[in-house]
Amino acid sequence: MTDVKEVKIINTIGRRKTSIARVYLQEGSGQITVNKRDFAEYFPTDVLQTIVKQPIVAVDANEKFDIRANVTGGGVAGQAEALRHAIARALTYKGKAKQRDAQEQKRAIATNAEEQPVFTYPEKQNYAHLIDADANREILKKEGLLIRDPRMVERKKYGRRKARRRFQFSKR
Predict the structure, then answer these.
(1) 101 with 120: CB under 8 angstroms?
(2) What is the dihedral of CA 76, 80, 82, 86, to 10 degrees?
(3) GO CC annotations (predicted)?
(4) What's the pLDDT tens digit per position in 67-122?
């Protein structure tokens, strides 16, 4: 029988305008695949490529991870920024069990209930060897890469040509 190697994959979602990026990050050689195409082929300009690589370069993880991404909606600039958001989230991922433990401890502290034991969930997947989430979070937060950009296209209003542009006014 062959040995089955357990591969730890971190799955996160990033958004920008109407674009949604789903990222699957795992240990590897630094290969980035977007919608089953090479990253350089999907984002042909240097500007878009630097936008996508920004969180990877910031935490100095250039050739540590393989990234597979599915990106939908919007244009290429919105997709690149959604992908950047998802990669930044993946690089700060601690695992669901650790997040639940932290929430439980915060609740126990808030209620000042020393007599109640703090329940901890068993570690299903430990990502500590894969990424240093706390150090990465500090770096990426300073760069502003963990915050979803809330700017959206303003809707067109009736009685106007666009969202704010009015129809041409003729005095006579």
Answers:
(1) yes
(2) 150
(3) cytosolic small ribosomal subunit
(4) 999 999 999 999 999 999 999 999 998 876 566 666 777 777 777 655 555 555 44
